[in-house]
Amino acid sequence: MNDWKKKGVVYEVYPQSFKDTNDDGIGDINGVIEKLDYIKNLGANIIWLTPIFKSPLVDNGYDIADYEAINPVYGTMADFDRLLQLSHEKGLKLVMDLVVNHNSDQSKWFQESKKDRDNKYSDYYIWQDPKDDGSAPSNLGSVFGGSAWEYVPERKQYYLHLFAKEQPDLNWRSKNMRQSIYKVMKFWLDKGVDGFRMDSISFISKQAEFKDVPLEDNKSYGSYYYGSSNGPKLHDYLQEMNREVMSKYDVITIGETPHTTASQAEKYIDPDRHELDMVFQFEHMHVDYGEYGRYSDVNFKLSDLRDSFARWQKDLSWNSNYLSNHDQPRMVSRFGNDTKYRKESAKMLAMITVLQKGTPFILQGDEIGMTNVSFDNINQFKDLESHNTYKFLMNKGVSSAKAFEMIQRKSRDNSRTPMQWNDKKNAGFSEGTPWIEVNENYSKVNVEDALADKKSIYHFYQKLLKLRNDSKIAIDGQFDLIAPNDSDVFAYTRTLNGKKLIVIGSFTDKKIKFDIPQGLLDNSYHEVLSNYDDLIEELSSTIYLRPYEGIVFSND
Ligand code: NOJ
């Protein structure tokens, strides 16, 4: 991987919730333009823009109706061109979301494909005949609930949708379909975009035949990833895509790869295989899963989070390091303490994530410690997954109050509420009515205050990102876990040519004693970063960590 990619720090912009400049309540491209300096000053150098293409917005833009058109709610192509140009002028790279496992049932491709079995687009989707009794071809379920098959009378066939029924899966076995995707990619790359985050890319190659799959735990449907995750021709497709498109440009590619092990992940990113630069893995996002998957009312154990991080650091040559994104609850609410120790824990979580080996990803708002939202009515949630899951939970006998609590805790909308710019109307996001309500804590948690306070989470991120990009150790150093069995502390070293960073983060609200392993720390070390004001002056192998304290020592 070349230098600019290794030095990449990615800031995720979820445009509809970032900044609204025309007061329709929906963030827009001009809003991103307005805040480019804010992103740059933070220390990020790559923007990942989630989908802004024409879309009916059933899944907030991950259902694309026209890959080469901008959704008018976000602006125009001229606005986009200006965003790209200004980003480049400021030294920021711009990465788009490429959603090509599926698109929208409103796309021309699908509208044509569903008409009959013999037209230019008829094989662009995964069509299957019904079973003899007319029912769906298999018992596969979709990510958002219910069957993964939908019947279309015109064709007398079902089409596959791993996500919502409005998101039909594309048929990668069709050469013409693949060529249409490559054309879309070139359209954006020729404009100058700097790469793609590739949505659900581990699902693009499906099994050749669809049969009923074993049902787990009395579930009504078979798991959507059965036979679809890391399928038979996946790597052939990625290599073809690389050959025909990516290899011709200097761009960064990040595959979203649910249900992928580290050894499978290495195949995607091994430079000799010419596929992708990095992948998003999900193992550490599963540490608080339970009976109802992600929505389960389960607390994570530090040991699980630490083991998972450490395993991937060891097994994968380059990671994408994140604790939240637009599909996850806010990291400070999930892994830290979003009340008394919000600032301390948000900083510590950033520290232990950003300093691992790999590319750091920051979700908009995490740099000011935005928290989960506290709605009191299910209708305040907008995400289709939250609504489907709420109904599903109640069908399973969970009380409505408990189901609501579970949604509240894990809903994707926690990360999608408007960016909190100041303590004015709608947190300075919009003068209109925001498409989703602003988190009520905006008078305390907002950018204006964070910029004014030298001790804010924002300013901590600035120092942290500078440390990460100025230090060869932070970029290339080997990762080794220390104190692997400590019940409250996640600590590790990064080592390059005998020089080290020692990174220590406490995950408890108690003051605790922590013994740095014998012989690791000597007088050549100094403290280079702390989330508390006063640095430790006397270095000793026994230190006392305050609630959620995070410290970095170095001998460099
Ligand atoms: C992953 C995206 O991040 C998520 O928001 C979306 O719902 C699914 N893929 C389907 O595109």
Can you tell me about this structure?
- With 556 residues, this protein is of the alpha/beta class.
- It is 27% helix and 16% strand.
- It has 16 helices and 20 strands.
- It has helices at residues 3-6, 29-34, 36-42, 77-89, 108-113, 175-191, 234-244, 262-269, 302-315, 331-335, 342-354, 384-395, 400-410, 447-452, 457-470, 472-476; strands at residues 10-13, 46-49, 53-54, 66-70, 93-98, 127-128, 149-152, 157-160, 195-198, 252-256, 278-280, 319-321, 358-363, 478-482, 489-496, 499-506, 512-515, 526-530, 542-545, 550-554.
- The strands form 5 sheets. Strands 11-10-9-5-2-1-13-12 form an 8-stranded parallel sheet, with helices on one face. It has a 5-stranded antiparallel sheet with strand order 14-15-16-20-18.
- The radius of gyration is 23 Å and the shape is globular.
- It starts with a helix and ends with a strand.
- The relative contact order is 0.10.
